[in-house]
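pipeline/complex-builder :: batch 7 item 3
reading input block
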Amino acid sequence: MNLADNLAEESWELLQRVRERAPLVQNITNFVAMDAAANAVLAVGASPAMVHAVEEVAEFVTVADALTINIGTLSSAWVESMRVAARTAARLGKPWVLDPVGVGATAFRRKTATELLDLRPTIVRGNASEIIALAGLAQARQKGVDSTQTTAEAEASAMLLARTLGGTVVVTGAVDLVTDGTRTVRIANGDPLMTRVTALGCALTAVTGAFAAVEKDALLAATAATAVFGLAGETAAKAARGPGSLRAALMDTLHGLDAAVVRAGVRVEASSPST
Amino acid sequence: MNLADNLAEESWELLQRVRERAPLVQNITNFVAMDAAANAVLAVGASPAMVHAVEEVAEFVTVADALTINIGTLSSAWVESMRVAARTAARLGKPWVLDPVGVGATAFRRKTATELLDLRPTIVRGNASEIIALAGLAQARQKGVDSTQTTAEAEASAMLLARTLGGTVVVTGAVDLVTDGTRTVRIANGDPLMTRVTALGCALTAVTGAFAAVEKDALLAATAATAVFGLAGETAAKAARGPGSLRAALMDTLHGLDAAVVRAGVRVEASSPST
Amino acid sequence: MNLADNLAEESWELLQRVRERAPLVQNITNFVAMDAAANAVLAVGASPAMVHAVEEVAEFVTVADALTINIGTLSSAWVESMRVAARTAARLGKPWVLDPVGVGATAFRRKTATELLDLRPTIVRGNASEIIALAGLAQARQKGVDSTQTTAEAEASAMLLARTLGGTVVVTGAVDLVTDGTRTVRIANGDPLMTRVTALGCALTAVTGAFAAVEKDALLAATAATAVFGLAGETAAKAARGPGSLRAALMDTLHGLDAAVVRAGVRVEASSPST
């Protein structure tokens, strides 16, 4: 497969498509990520809406172009809204993205994530510990919400999870991995300083919703979103003086990315099908 | 009327008054806007408090100088708090500002907004789509929370709404319009990049609360708040590299605005009474 | 006692320890502070988690290294979670920090704070008005959530509260005071512009949790956290153009603080035991 040959170009084309269509992305995300996620979605040219009340969540899905669900700060009321929203998206054939924040940390999160997986997310994005926990391959060693495991350790889990779901799984880390169980892509963009800014993974999840809204091939959408976001982060990190200025510069860079920077900067590598 | 002749000067005088009196502004706002709204209120020299629990919301209104209510991220519990808070403000004669975020998008929002309108907000601030939906003049074409209609399209709705309420209505957009149903002002400050930063409209609503706390003429308070905020945004945009640096620079500029910049920069135009 | 002679050096050592151990700090904080608190905890090298659902809050405390509880945006459901979390921390002997935001403002806050005090926080951090209200020494003159009283006015209250609790109390203001009822330290770091950025006190509370996680002497942990945070703020303020750039620069500076800056910049003064 020559998927990777074109991925820098494809990433640029998808970013342009997001900017032109300005898809409406509904996010049920955590309280920490609300600001960063909304700003990142705006910075790529899409329109974010944070709507979670059970009274309106389904109605809103009918007008949204994509849905993202993030379990970072759960409560029972929100879990009900998540279920209703995901069910509506699944029924309407709209793409939806699951971010299983800290899923290995508590029984409540495991239960919630399991229920949401039954509703077949189009894309799941998490760190290595989260994807491993989700795949049930290993006893999660996750302590908090940050990852203690590497992308390589999570690869088998990601493939298993993708095949079980019939969906696409993204593992973000020093190297990012995107797989639909058959095709696998590795992305070498990003910068370690990004881990010192809160909610950037959650913001990427929301941005992934924007890309999935304009591209039916979920592997391609997830890859482009992850590459573009990582490229913006590494570009921003070059001039940043620390995590505070990195965050502002990331939004600036996402907003201003042009063809030359994306074509030259996206670093992807595709594996042969492993089966 | 020669309202506009003095509006730059009036804006500067009201900003000074906010800085001197540091009014306490209680905000029941959405989760995305909490940070931006609190920072904007601090940046103009007032004191923000985000208090929404039904157990304490009325008690807090009694000590606050103004109240703002924003329906951006609703839930049933918060709607009850909004009602109690607005009723208390109305009873005590304290100014309160309504921000009908995404009111055209769902039945839950329309119902909530309708109930809150009955409690007679001093000022309503929204984008064109929101004000049109609120005035019930047109079938709302609003998809998400961003506006798809222009200020000019919303003018008749704004005037109708202002007369019905006996209040002041602000429509923000490329040009902002402020009307009390008789007097109408247009403000040409602001910058298009501001639409790429989340919650700046919500932040302006909170800042409008600060101005309404120090000036009984709601049209004047709303005009000064909108002009000062827009001026800070356009000044910040000149040096910003994108939406991330714009947001930080907006807070810096709001905090540092001086008489010369405000007097020279505020661009307002008053219409003759249209009846 | 020669506590103060070594406090700059101790502050540096504790900051290094936080960076090496990267303690997991669980925060039940308010909606305004979520972003700033998480970013500050990351900036000092620790790992934040915002977990408040009653279904998982106790389970999470068992894996966390410290807990912080902030009553800034209360609701009944969260109060229950706060109680459960604090009780679990107390039972497991894990350090926990209480931030009684606006405690003098409403009966609901006073009641909640009183219940939480019964669960013996390791450290209480508030502004002068909050500490005075908490100590019950004076009728609180607190209007909103900002302080109208000085650190000096709060000193007796802080000492009484510390002795009653058997804990450490931090009063932040123009000068910060840290006392365990016997030992008292004053810290002269910080910058007035910090009061124009929302939630920096709340962010310090979360950072104090990170320091308490790596140092059993709570007075020392609280002093180091307060001094390091204040030093980062004053360093950042020198180059900031206002509150927006200050906030970003504060995170940058916290992340980059080195031995030379900390040793030279921390300004502490210890009092003799006052009994």
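note: Chain C touches chain B at residues 30-32, 34-36, 72-76, 102, 105-109, 143-146, 195-199, 240-245, 247-248 (CB under 8 Å).
queue -> next item
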